[in-house]
Protein 1
Amino acid sequence: MIVWIVLFPLIGAVINGLLFASGLWKKALGGDEHTENSITNIIGCGAVLISAIISTYYFVQLLSLDPSERQIIQELFVWIPSGEFTVSFEFLFDTLSCVMALIITWIGFLIHIYSIGYMHHDKAYAKYFTYLNIFVFFMLILVLGNNFPLMFVGWEGVGLASFLLIGFWYEDTEKAYAGRKAFIVNRIGDFGFILGIFLIFFIFGSVNYQEVFGMALDASFMSAVPAAVITAIGLLLFVGAVGKSAQIPLYVWLPDAMAGPTPVSALIHAATMVTAGAYMMARCNVFYSQSPTAQMIVVSIAAFTALLAASIALTQNDIKKVLAYSTVSQLGYMFMAIGVGAYAAGLFHLVTHAFFKALLFLGSGSVIHVLSGEQDIRKMGGLRKLIPITAITFLVGTLAIAGVPFLSGFFSKDEILAALYDRGYTIHWIIALITVVLTALYMLRVYLLTFEGKTRVSDSIKRYIHESPYTMTIPLMVLAALSILGGYIGVPDFMGKVVGLHDTNLFEHFVSSSILIDNAKEVGHHLFGHWALVGFSIGGAALGIIIAFYFYYIKPSAPEKVAKDIEPLYEASLNKWYVDELYDYIFVQPFSYISRKASDFDIHYIDGSVNGIANIVKEMALTLQTAQTGVIRSYATLMAIGAAVILILIVLL
Amino acid sequence: MFYVFAALALAGALLVISFKNPVSSALSLVLTLFSTAVLFVLLLADFVAVIQILVYAGAIMILFLFTVMFLNLKPEALKFESKNLPFKVSVLLAVLLFVGYFASLGFKKGLSLINVSSSNLEGFGTVEGVGTSLFTDYLLPFELTSVLIIVAIIGVVAIAKKRAN
Amino acid sequence: MNVSIEHYLILSAILFVIGAYGIIARKNLIIVLMSLELMLNSANLAFVAFSRALGDMTGHVFMIMSITVAAAEVAVGLALLVSIYSHRETLDIDVLKILKG
């Protein structure tokens, strides 16, 4: 029963929430904190673990099926029976959702384990695990739903969970504002998404995946649909993805979201929620493959995002902010792949990115934990000897994201670059290549400044440095192993042939069952063959690594000089190209002004009229009160007069 | 016959509202009730007439007299608050009277006192007739009035009880 | 003697009006209650008169109901009156106006 994958995190959240987070255990049942935390751990982590096991079970089931029929559908009940618009609660477990579910549950499980150590001293321990379980629940609904409304339920739900978790330490107003910003910016994307769903229903008369895609694949049906409409659907859905997956112009919430606890950043902003947009677009491949205009727009925005984010990441000094911008940049890569129609490549990068980005975030969390809250990399350094496990796993993650050969990132990035070039998007390929260089550069910078060289840590903190507990280091090691080995499920054919294997791209074959149209047109100017492209990407990575090595290891004083030489550029990059300030000026200020004016109007006029009516009634009541004299005689007199009047009226009429 | 007793009834009524002494007013009311009972007999309502004397003149007026004597009331002075009040009131009531008369004129069209010897007037006004009507057609109101009486008894006991202060 | 029904009705109306006058014009509470009885009595007269005119026993039955109600009402009224007198030592309805407002 697929529904159990979804239900277990919900049950965990409900139990943890009602019993522990609400304070019931402590206040009403007089329990102690130690058992509370232990039970919370077991329920919270256990729920996700059970979901992971069930997902794996169904994965094995899928493998035993014929590739053209790899899908399991389970319907629970009819949710909205409204004539033509009938929506049921039904789940679809095909190869695409299988991949997503496995990522969400297993990496989610690792992050739950990690959180046991990281949040150990936090007061709102149970609330944290409740929120995490709620998040996993909604994310699973998103990827397992079999129709658009259900996906949207999950979409909104993860937005909510993200808000709750980003603003987890809400006593600090700045952090609460970060949560609010995330939710609002997300909402803007959701607006486009909803419009897209409306348009889909309008054109296709249904919101169920099988029905809609079936109609969309039917050439005779589609000949009646204008191309502009398909483009519009694609673009509206893309707006939703822009919001959720932090592309230009709606990426501004992601860096601010670093205000939340680091495991939250790992789970939500590295592995899962931000990838929801990519999943959605892969699911809707039928639309995108039929609309070249939409594809061009997607790729262009994605390429620009990747480059812009990488340029900002170069100068940031907060370790988590670097990783945040890195996430935006890597998401750009995923969308570039999806934009050109190489859906499997994009998803492959999604998977590998989940591995190494989660690893990087958890590693940085370990560093922050060890340094008692320090996040500025200028105040770190020389930590490799002190916290070796963290350092080595972080190095693995860094090399993976940079695209060093034989690690997972290399295979996935390379496929994207190959797809860009082969399908004729040369300019975008060049931009992606430049971004490879920048990625390697900034990631190595972070590693070198944090772990190598002379230590710049303040003495008061240095005394307390010791390696993180097992609950934190074991997930790091597991993720490092995955970052190294995970790439081998998707080795491209031409590489596999070298060692005599055929059909090595297991991942692509698996996922292709769910991709209904894959327009792999190979456009002709093949200046460079496969191996040349690989050489380019390795060269780019190497260039980045060498530059970083020079600047930050060999000659640590060099960066400052360069920064002074190109000071305006440096300042702009450091200040995120002033995008937030621009948004504030254009949108936020006028809107606050209008809101204030509206509020004044409401208080003055509307409340005034309501109160005024109440006052009128009161005045009338006071006037009529004078008739209540209490003297019976006048009552009787009035009654007699009244009776006389009625009699006269009866006689007259 | 009618005019005699009608005059008596009117006289009694006028005396009720004129006497200063409450006891005298009560006795005048008794006179009015008796006269009305005779009028009932003239209307062939024997049973009702006897009931009127028994209950109304008998029980209710005795109750009044008991209360008056129990409270030991003194005759009041017929003072009115404003000089114009009785005049205004009289005018008002004269209007009522005229209207009532004209209203009753409307009934002239269909009604007149039916002759006794008509066949469908068997047992009209006798105990049998009243009893039959009371216990068949109007059983429910009958039961409800008994409830009403019980409520009244309870109410009276509750109100007139001496509070232990 | 040919007395038509209008005579009874006019008599009833006059008695009613006299009763109404008694309620409005007298100060003593007991007199007011007695005038009330007078009004009820006049209504009963009208009932019986119409019953005779229509040949229906309904009027008689209603008259009995009316007497019953009048009895109950007098009982309660007098109980209240006794209670008021023991409290306020007066039965002047112009003085008893706590229910003002």
Protein 2
Amino acid sequence: MIRILLADDHPLTRSGLAGWIEKEEGMELAGLASDGESAWKAVLELQPDLAMLDIEMPNGNGIEIASRILKQGLMTNVLMLTAYSAQQYVMASIRAGAKGFILKSAPLEELRRAVFDTAGGTFYLDPSVSLVEDAGPPEELSPREREVLILAGQGLPASEVAGMLSITERTVAAHLTSIYGKLGARNKTEAILLALKKGIVMLEELHYLDGERGRP
Amino acid sequence: MKKNLLLLLMILVTLLTLAGFLVSLHAFRAQEEAMDSMMRSYVMDLADTFTGGTMGRGMSQRNRSLGQMRFRMLSMDPALKSGEAGGVLLIGTDGRILAGSQGSEKLLFLREKAVLSDEPLKIQDEQGNDYYVVLKELPDGNFILAAVSRTVLLAPLIGIWKFWIITAMSTSAAIFVGMILLWRYLAVPLRRLSEKIRGMRWGKDHPPALYSGPLYELESLSGAIGTLAEEAFSKEELKKRYVTDLVKAEEDTRKHLARELHDGPLQSSVAAIKRIQLAREVLPPGAEEALRHIDTAEDVVQTSAKEIRDYCDELSPSWIRLGLASAMQENADRLSRTYDGLVIDVAVNEDLDPLPEEHTLALIRIFQEAVSNGARHGKARFIKASLRKEDDMVHFSLRDDGTGFDAKDLSGTDYEVLRTTGHRGFANMNERARLLGGTMTLDSAPGAGCRIDIVFPSGSGTEGPDQNG
């Protein structure tokens, strides 16, 4: 049984989802919160297996709560629930330690998958976020390409990636272009998200996300 | 010709004056010579009168009286009435005066200096009077001394002449000096003034100090022009502020609308979608028609939710709240999706976060405009953007490897210039840079890509137009 805390400031969404969780097999509604502060209190108090957090909430957004959970080393996994599909929301969520990211408009089957995946510690990404059709198994990346992708995908500029790998910026750009082609991505964030989704890159490999960079 | 007309006129007047001066000088010389020869012939005639006649032959009693009479007649000549103007003396071998015209004894001193000659001699006395002197020896051994003083005899004539020549020369000199002063204090300042007026960027700069000098007319003229220029400048400023205000007002409205859309219709649509999905779950088996309706309803709401999301992104994307680095990356990612194959590299210096939301938004808009320019017009494949802080100033620079263009003509980066020369994109960027209280510089050349640099003060919120006016 997955004990779930649901935090969303929109009453209709909140009550709708709460009803769904209660009915779903293998899920149990541990508590409800309508803003950041009450969500944080509930997390501490209830120690749920999974916190479904809305990103945009009053008194502390979902990303903030996720990073607090990460910092405190709590066992609660986080699934981000949002009305927005911006890839940087995903990146910010991953930085904050969230295991999953799903859009509120996603079908219920996807939501079910997201809940079970993230509760089990597996990375889940809403299919519509990457905005590309899943074209079967991806081409394999070379070890160098993987290195470039892991560094660049976390938001490091080409100059820093080039410096860390002792290659030129032009080479970094060339690697990225090749990576985009292999993954079917159109930018480095999309590339890293697709790589995460397809298991080419593990969440644990993204060390540079731990810093304060770009945290909202 | 027209340009130098004034100069030519002044040279002409100066030359005419100089010619007049030379003519006066010549006339002065000719007059001197004429007076000289007149004096010479006069004194010769005077001497001849006494030597050529009866005086020449023996001193008979008759002749003597005739001689005396001649002397008296000579004394009646008004010019020679007093001996100072001149006279004739009959001097004995012993040096005594035998006869002479009235007052002529005063001229005796000339005897010592005079020598026998056929030509008159010029002798000066102690008072500086010039005498033309002729000394002749008579057959009887006596001497005839004829002398006239030029200085005394021609005194009125010389006076008038001197007055005339001084007047002519000083008039010439005055005109000459006048021309120089006119050139120095009127023509040159006028030329400088027109140069300055020509060099003024009307409405763009405060007018420079146009004239400082002694002439009231020029001062007042340059003052009037300065006032006009200042008015043009204020008007231009007002226009710029108006544009800035418009941009700001538009941005505020967009932001407000986006927030309203995001918090209201979008959240409701999303909630509706969830409810529709839940309704589908609890539908009894076999309710095909209800399922069809539900599917359609979800499609419709999904579409409208997506549309609202797109509107929000268009108006004021919610992701700018993620902070500058994330927002810049999101923006870059979106742009590289839009321009397929374009690689955008963003480097945001860590100490920049957090920046006011307005700043982030302005930078995002500039970024979008610049990338769109570089990718669409410049066919750029690689764009590098960087943001860093230096001495309380934020530096945003963007380089592309596109075809570039001649940016020399746009160096002023003035909104109007950019707008009217078909560079609306750059005009907008420039305006947003102004909105940040900063400046934008463009650097590009054909084949060399394009570089855009924007520098604005960090920390302070969006500056009102008052501060950057």
